[in-house]
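ARCHIVE CARD
SHELF: 3
SLOT: left
DATA:
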Amino acid sequence: MSSGPIAHANRADLLRMRRLAQAIDGPREQDPAAVARRLLALQGQDFAAGCWALAVRTDRATRDDVLAELDAGRIIRSWPMRGTLHFVPPDDLRWMLSVTTDRMVAGLARRHEQLSLTAADFARAADVVTGALEGGGRIGRAELMELWESAGIGTSGQRGYHLIYFLSQTGLLCWGPVVRGPNGTLAQALVLLDEWAPAPPAIGADEASTRFLLRYLTGHGPATIRDFVWWMKGTIGAAKAARAELGDALTAIECDGAEYLVTSELADRAAATPATRAEREAVHLLPAFDEYLLGYQDRSPILDDEHSELIVPGGNGIFQPIIVAGGRIVGTWRRDGARVVPAPFAELSGARRARLGRAASAYARYAG
């Protein structure tokens, strides 16, 4: 870390830098794969929402553009951390797993015991699916369950989910090309990670942890150490060691009494380019589970406590799509056919209603 004095920032400055880091404001990325590289990982448990998260950060990508990137293997989906599905660049998944897998698998030991899943079950399941997929094969979730059942491997009672999760967490499988259901629903097929994303040179544990922090801050900063530790489900000790290793590549800023880390490159860029009128007045329609909200443990800078219930009704873990204006969440929205139906927390100004209309038009163009 730089030994210079800690800079002070107000909340508006903090949130502007986050929007610049996430390519929500400022220059957008050219394609969805570049978005994945910038953010390193975007939550993807809701497939449709994750596709919009990738597109909204580009110049004009459509849903078909996102699906094409998935079909080409330029973006894959797996469980790199927190036991949550994320869209990630294929070149980065393995080193991410090298940091997170041991802790995640160890945390599942009790659940595996409850499901009567043993090391022999995982090994047998791996052999069966590898035999089916070697040579460029792909398989849907339902078909894989049938395959395992026919081989005498029970999949009921969440056993099938945990088999897929374990084999993905340990680097055998990932979600790759898109498959369309009979009613038009979209999902992904499972493929062998070795065939879909050939292994890059291995890196050491310390280098991987340092890379994790830098890449997180590149696509999410400013953020606190605790934000990062929560995001990748790591340890405070490893995060602090990574921070020290990065040295002057990072800058510390203080906002509302808390210390935030940001890449020095972004801090310099934000200081050299004051916010434009378009940035100050922008209104964004972001998807459910978007990284702009879920990329941080502390969400108070962008969301008032009184509105939390409206974002996660009943506290059930299902996050609603959000309307963002001035960097803060000002409402939710939903899609009704080709129409965006907004639900602002309070009456929007005429200017914000007009910009909301533009954002809705952009979503309609994306969705086709």
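SLOT: right
DATA:
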Amino acid sequence: MPWAVGGLRLGRAWVAAPDRAALRARWAALTGAEGTERERLFRPSRSRTPTTGAAALPGRRSPSTARFADAPGPCPDPVRVLRDPFDEQWLLPDQRLIDLARPELWRVLDEHQLFAVETPELLVTPHLPAGRLGRIRPLHRRPGGAEPNLAPGLLPLLGERYGGWVTPQDVLCWILAAGRPGPRGYEVPLTGDTGRWRAGLELGHRLLTVQLRGGPGSEPPRLPGGRRPYVRSAVQAWPEGLAYDPETETLSLGTGTVSPVPPGAWEYEVQGGTRVLEAWFAARTAHRDPQAEGLEALGPSAWPQSWTSELPALVTTLALLADLAPERAAFTAGPPLPAAELTAAGVLPPPRWARRPASVLDHHEEGPGGQFALL
């Protein structure tokens, strides 16, 4: 996957939140303020201030491309993003508010797209990654899945080698099964053994299905043995903390409880030993921190029921990934595909153009101040 892009740099934390209503409230507070108070709430950076002009994000109806100080416009409809590992939140899609929005990624964002995010554990998401997660590699270089972000010649070579049609998603599944972080970045060995290829595809497909929580039009994965996490009791007041009882496999949020929660889901960690469930809870209580100030302190006054409803699916995802972790750790690619074969097929080295975004401009894009963007 030669084309890789650095992560979005938001520049100000208040433009993203777990609750979309909170983003609308923050927009209203910002646009309702004037002068120095608006500037303080905005939190200017070197890249973005209230007087900075910016183009509309591709594929999004921007409230305005005039300078924010002159004409903020109506609140843009928040979009779903991956803010942290396994944590789907909301973002205000206004490039005037985002230090580095990566327009090239927005151009290829559609229902066919998947993004591979390089962390110690490779993440795959249909949502735009919008946090400090790692380099982002789209599966497709153009909208509609028209062109895979793969080294030219790779798919025909693999199809001939393994005796069948190989799709871009097959390669992604193989990466999930066989790829590992290395000194040069995320490294993916290609196998010369057809049996190992098929075994890797089968394992990778299971990993992909779990990470995507089933995907569009398909049933979400379930725990084995008919077990299924449920919300056993609702959250009645704002929970002060998150607790786990391993004996009863119960996750508690104040008065609210979810069970069964397998130990593997509770213990699941990412990036620096942080438990995913604890990070998920911390993100939803950040606005209540005494040190939170400005727009970041604006959030729901009562715990939203939708947050509790998210937990069973997240618990299922983490539990299934924990169950698959030993199998993935033990998986080996077997004898490697000879580098000479990849070179002869023109796969290595990938051409320079494959490392850059495709020229995608199927409609006019509005630049700063309402002018057309020139690419």
